[in-house]
Design goal:
Elements (H helix, E strand, L loop, with lengths): L1 H8 L4 H13 L3 H9 L2
C-alpha cells in the first residue's frame, strides 16, 4: 500500500516503471527488480 501511495505521488512514468519491474521479476532477476525499486 505504501508503495502504491508513493508511486501515485511520484513524478515518474508509472507505466514504464511497472513494466520494467514486471520484466525483471518475470525473468527471475530479483536484484534487477530491487534496483528498479530503489531508483538505481
Amino acid at each position: 500500500m505504501e508503495r502504491s501511495v508513493y508511486l501515485f505521488r511520484a513524478s515518474v512514468d508509472k507505466d514504464k516503471l511497472l513494466a520494467l519491474l514486471k520484466s525483471q521479476v518475470m525473468s527471475g532477476n530479483v536484484q534487477g527488480a530491487i534496483k528498479v525499486c530503489s531508483g538505481n
